[in-house]
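Example (one chain per record):
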Amino acid sequence: SAGGLITTESTTDAPMPPEGKSIVGISLTPAQVPALPMHGGDKVRIIVTHANGDAPTGAPQFTAAEVVDTAIDETTGNTIVNVLVPYADASVLAARAAIGNVALILDSGAQ
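Predicted structure:
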């Protein structure tokens, strides 16, 4: 928290990202992200959206992820969410995020 002390218990020697994982940064408009605070460790799904506005047929594709951290882009007002994903999913997710074809769902930690 702001003004809090950093202790040895609040740090780790573990590499980030861990082996087999990648961190992808996603810039999301208010329409693409829940209006709730997200924290490191929160479980999310990044849903593939259609660029042309067509309704999806069946369940949309998604990538399960874990929030690393978030920030607000002061210029655009977008929420930047850094997520931890499997290495195999990172490049496709990054490409979709770069063109805005994603939305984020915040899931229960009990999933």
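Caption: The radius of gyration is 15 Å.
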